Amino acid sequence: MADNSEMTDSDYINKNFDRVLGKPGVKAVLVLDRETGNVLKTGGNTELFRKESTESSKPSISNDAPSEGTTETSSADREGVIELATLVWNYVNATEQFVQDLNKEDTTHLQRLRTATQELVIITDPRFILAVAHDKKPNSG
Amino acid sequence: MQQRRDEILAKKAKLAELKRQRELRASQSAGRGSITPSELISPMPGRHTSRHDIENLINSLVGDSRSVSVSTGMNSPARRGSRPNSVLSGGELSNAATSEFQVPANAQVVTPSQPQFLSTVALKTVYECPPSPVKEVFSYSKGVQTTEEWIPPTRARAASDSDLEDTVTATPNKRLSRRERDREEELRENIRKEIEEELKAAKELVTDGTMKPSTKENFPVRALTAEELKAVTQSDDFMDFVERSTKVIEKALDEEYDILTDYTLQAANLDDDDEQSGNTGGKGRRKVREIAQFYDDRWSKKRMISSIDFSPKFPELLLASYTKNPTAPHDPDGIVQVWNMHLHDRPEFVFHAQSDILTAKFSPFHPNLIIGGAYSGQVLLWDTRSKSAPVQKTPLTGLGHTHPVYSLDIVGTQNANNIISCSTDGAVCGWSVDMLTQPQEAMTLVTPPPAKYEDLSPTCLAFPQADPTFFLVGSEEGTIYPCHRYDRAGAKAGVDARVSYKGHAAPVMSVDFHPSKGPVDLGDLVLSASLDWSVKLWKVRAPAATSAVVAAVGSAVGTESQVTPLLDFVREDVVYDAAWSPVKPGVFSLVDGAGWLELWDITVETEEPVARISPSARKDGRTMLSKSLNKVAWEPSEGKRLATGGIDGQVTVFEVGPDLGGKENLKNEEWTSVKKLVNRIEAVGVNGVTAV
C-alpha cells in the first residue's frame, strides 16, 4: 500500500502479534533469528514457556534490543528470555539436523509439540523462527 | 688526456653500435608488429627452420605452465610466453623474447585453440590459491586484511569457508555450505552449552549476578544492537515471515478438532457445543446455523459489502468486495478480501483498487485469478500469487466503460474465455483475460423502440449455463431484457427487441439462472430480485426459439411480446439479492433490506420461506441502519454453506440442514416436482399467486 510508512509497518507486525496473543489459550510468542539465535521479538508472558521460573513478567510486546536501555524489562527477565531462546533454538536446530539426516533435500516447516501441559507451535523459515506456546485444549490426553 | 679521448671515442662507437642494434631490432619488431598475411602463411626461412624447435618450446612451455600454475603460481617465462601482446610494450626485447613472441603468432596459425592459454594464465595470477588446507587462508585474511578495511570476521570466514568448500569438493551447493556453517555454529553452541552447564552448576552454589556477563557473552552469536534489530525487524523478509507464519499459527489455533481428544476421559466438557447454542434458524432438517463471521478492523471498517463469491477451486475460500471507507481517505477506495473458513480473524488476502469495487468474482478457469468491476468503470484483475495491487486493469479511457461496472462474468471454456462486463450507461464489453488494455468486443445496449427513452441502464447481467452468447440484463426501470453478444439468425447483436420480461416496478438488483445440473433441464428458470419488495420466477425463452415464438405469439408484425413471471414472491422489504442453490433444484435464498436471509423451497412452499435467519450483530457495530444485506452466495460444490454481507461490512457464513443443501440425499423427484410445478403454473396461469 502506498501510504504505508515504516511506522505502520511495525504497527502492522505488532497487530499481527497482538491478534495471535489474543487467541484463547495463547501464552507467549517468540521470534528468533534462524542463523544467530538472536531474539527479535517477544510477546506475552514468555516465562510461561517454562515452569521453573516463578516470578511473572507482565505480558507485553517489546522489541528486545539487548543494548537498548532496558527500563521496562528487568535484566532477570531478559536473561530468562535469552535462556528460553537458546532452548528453542537448540530444539529447532536438532530437529533440522534430524530432518536433514532423513533426507538431505528436506527442511522443517512446522513443528507442533504437545506436552502434558501445553502445546508449542514452531514455524521455521530459512531466516526466522516463530514459536508460540499455548494451553492445550481441555479434554485431550 | 689522450687516454680520456680514446675512452670517449670508444664509448661513442659503442653507443653507435648499440643504436644500430636497437634500430635493427626496432625494424624487426615493427615488421612483426604488423604481420602481413603472407608472412603468417609463409614465415621467414630462418624462422621456418627453427619451427620444430619452437613447437618443442611451446609444448614444454605449455606443459610447464600447466604444472607450474598449480604449484607455484609465479613463473615469468611461461607467463610471458602466452601473453603475446605485452611484448611490444616494454624494452625487454631480447632474442629470446622475440622468438617467444613469434611462437604464439605461429601457433595461432598452427593451432587455433591457442587463446585457451590466456585463461589458464589468468588463473595463475591468483597468488593465494595454494592447495594447502584451511589454516593458511585464515592467517592471511586475519593478519593482513584487517588493517585496511573492516570485514565482519564471521561472514568473511564463512565466505572463505564456503569458497574453499566449493573449490575442494567442486560442488557449489548452498545447502552444503549452509550446513557447514550450521555445523560450525553447532560447535560453538556445544561450547556454549558446556559453559552454561557449568554456570548452572555454579548457580546452585551461588545465586548472584556474577555469571551474567559470561552468559551474555556466550549467547549463540553476538547480540544485536538496537539498530541492527530495527533493520532486521523492518526488513521485507521479516514482514513476509511474520505475515506467513502468523497466518499458519492462527490456522493452527483456530482448528476446532483436537486430534488428541481422549474420549475415555470424563465427558463433562463434551456437551458445551450444544445444538441449541449459537445463532440458528429453521427447524429440524431445514435448520440454518451461523458458522463464521469475518470482519477485519483494519480493512472492513466503515465499508459496505458489494459482492461475495466462493472459490470454485478451494471451497474454504470466499471473497468479498467492499466500497470505500469515507473516513480513511488515504486507504485505497476499493478492496477485495479473500477469507478462509479456517482463518477466523483476518483475511487470507487483501486486494486493492483505486475506486470502489462493485463486483468481484473468482475466475472459474484459473484458481489464482480474481476479476472485479469498479465504480470508475475499470475492470480489474488480481492474482493471489502477486501483491495486493491488481495485475491488470483496464485504462480510464473511452475505450471501455466510463460508468460504474456493477456486474461482470467470465464465460466460455477453459481454453477460450472472456470477461463480459456491463456498466450503467448500457455499455457491454468483452475482454480477454490476458489483455485488458482494450475490449475485444463492445456494444451499447438500447431500449427497444416502443420505449420513451432509448437509454438502457443495466444493473446486473446473467448468462445461462449452456450459452455464452446469450444473456439477460436487469435494468434500472425494472424490465429484464434478453441480449445477444453476436448477430444471429433473426436477431441482431444487442437487446433482443422481440421479448422483454416486464414485472418489476423498481430497479432489478439481481438475475440468476437456474444451475441446471440434474436429470431434468431447468436451465430456463430465472430468479430476479428487485427493490419493489419482490422476487420473481421467470421462464426464459430459448434464444434460438424466440423467432418462432414471436412468429406464433406476436402475430409476426414485430410487436413486442411481454412475458409475465411464473411466480411472485412478495416480501416485506426491498430484496437485494436472490440466488439458486447449486445442488437443490427447488431451493433458493434471498437477502433483504431488513437484514433477513431467507431460504425458500418451491417444491414445498411458494408463499413462505422454509427458514429465515439474521446474522448476529457485531458487538461494536452500529445498531441503526446496519442490518441490510446486499449479497448472498452459495458455496458451489457442496451447496451446504452460504455467505452473506451488507452495510456493516461483515461477512457471515451459514450452514444449512440436509433438506436445504448438501449432495447426500438428492432425489430425482425434486427435479420432476419443480418441473411439474412450472408446468402447472403455465397451464393454469398465475392465478392465486400474483393476485395476492
Describe it.
Chain A: Residues 13-134 form the Roadblock/LAMTOR2 domain. Chain A: This is Roadblock/LAMTOR2 domain-containing protein. Chain A: Residues 56-74 have a biased composition (Polar residues). The complex is a heterodimer of chains A (141) and B (692). With 141 residues, chain A is α+β, with helices and mostly antiparallel strands. Chain A contains two helices and five strands, in the order αββαβββ. Chain A has a five-stranded antiparallel beta sheet with strand order 2-1-5-4-3, with helices on both faces. In chain A, a hairpin with a 3-residue loop joins strand 3 and strand 4 (118-124). The longest helix of chain A has 28 residues, at 75-102. With 692 residues, chain B is an alpha+beta fold. Chain B contains 15 helices and 31 strands. Mean pLDDT of chain B is 76; it is low at 33-43, 65-113, 153-172, 206-218, 270-274, 548-558 and 687-692. Chains A and B meet through helix 1, strand 1, helix 2, strand 3 and strand 5 of A and helix 10, helix 11, helix 12 and helix 13 of B.
Number of helices of chain A: 2
Secondary structure tally: strands of chain B: 31
Largest sheet of chain A: 5 strands, antiparallel
Distance between the termini of chain B: 149 Å
Widest sheet: strand ordering of chain B: 1-2-31-30-29
Instruction: Detail the poorly predicted runs of chain A.
Output: 1-7, 52-73
Shape of chain A: globular
The biggest sheet of chain B amounts to:
5 strands, antiparallel
| Rg from alpha-carbon coordinates of chain B | 42 Å
Q: What oligomeric assembly is this protein in?
A: heterodimer
The overall pLDDT average of chain A reads 73
Report low-confidence residues of chain B grouped into runs of 5 or more. Answer: 33-43, 65-113, 153-172, 206-218, 270-274, 548-558, 687-692
Structural class of the helices, strands and pairings of chain A?
A: alpha+beta
Element-level helix/strand string of chain A: HEEHEEE
Estimate what percentage of residues of chain A fall within beta strands: 15-25%
Could you say which overall geometry of chain B the principal axes of the C-alpha atoms support?
elongated
- Rg of chain A, Å, rounded: 16 Å
Question: Helical content of chain A, roughly?
Answer: 25-40%
